[in-house]
Design the sequence.
């Protein structure tokens, strides 16, 4: 009788363990962004402190736009980006990627309310837009701005009309549909995380794991998103970049 009772207790314990094990697995959710194709935690040092030396196949615009002055510094495991006083353009820190649908995530810190981080997605081979610009996600202290650049302000025909101040009423109306501005307060001097997802013609943005905006526009459906540009007009610190390819 004792042996039977012990056996029953053992079986009940095994079933209970199986139940809790199954419960833990079923409650574990992880969204599939696709295959991780690039990541960087910036845990490395430069060999000198006079020129940009990001490494890991990154390039910068400093030679052309800042007379070669240093604008990117790897320090304490972060990438510090700051514009030089002689620069004539925002700092551009660039890396190849390559997806149609996919996602990218990066940690960032804005130190002042007027700091701005722009995640620009481009296809340099696309000849219908200026400099291959396709998508901008512009992060400010009080707003998140989403831009379809391909069929918006950087479409060559529209850009030419803007420069010559000859935009038609139809073009002006079109441009209003190519941007979405979302009020969202970020605390300066604190770390945040942004996740950008593109699926078909839809762009979704999450800040600190909370969805803050979804925007659908035809330019987002461009077949080849080959280049990431991190654009900084003042100063931003970033870390832990990841890029996923779904197709």
Sequence:
């Amino acid at each position: 009788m004792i042996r039977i009772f012990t056996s029953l207790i053992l079986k009940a314990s095994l079933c209970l363990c199986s139940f809790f094990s199954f419960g833990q697995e079923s409650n574990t959710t992880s969204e599939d962004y696709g295959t991780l194709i690039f990541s960087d935690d910036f845990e490395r040092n430069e060999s000198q402190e006079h020129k940009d030396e990001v490494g890991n196949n990154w390039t910068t615009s400093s030679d052309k736009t800042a007379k070669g002055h240093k604008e990117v510094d790897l320090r304490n495991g972060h990438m510090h980006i700051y514009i030089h006083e002689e620069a004539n353009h925002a700092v551009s820190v660039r890396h190849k990627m390559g997806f149609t649908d996919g996602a990218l995530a990066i940690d960032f810190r804005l130190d002042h309310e007027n700091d701005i981080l722009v995640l620009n997605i481009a296809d340099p081979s696309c000849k219908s837009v200026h400099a291959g610009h396709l998508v901008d996600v512009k992060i400010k202290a009080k707003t998140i701005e989403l831009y379809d650049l391909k069929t918006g302000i950087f479409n060559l025909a529209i850009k030419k009309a803007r420069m010559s101040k000859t935009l038609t009423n139809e073009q002006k109306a079109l441009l209003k549909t190519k941007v979405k501005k979302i009020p969202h307060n970020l605390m300066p001097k604190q770390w945040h995380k942004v996740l950008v997802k593109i699926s078909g013609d839809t762009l979704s943005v999450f800040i600190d794991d909370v969805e803050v905006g979804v925007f659908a526009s035809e330019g987002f459906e461009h077949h080849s998103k080959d280049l990431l540009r991190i654009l900084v007009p003042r100063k931003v610190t970033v870390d832990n970049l990841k890029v996923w390819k779904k197709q």
Q: What stands out?
A: Residues 2 and 8 are 10 Å apart (CA to CA).
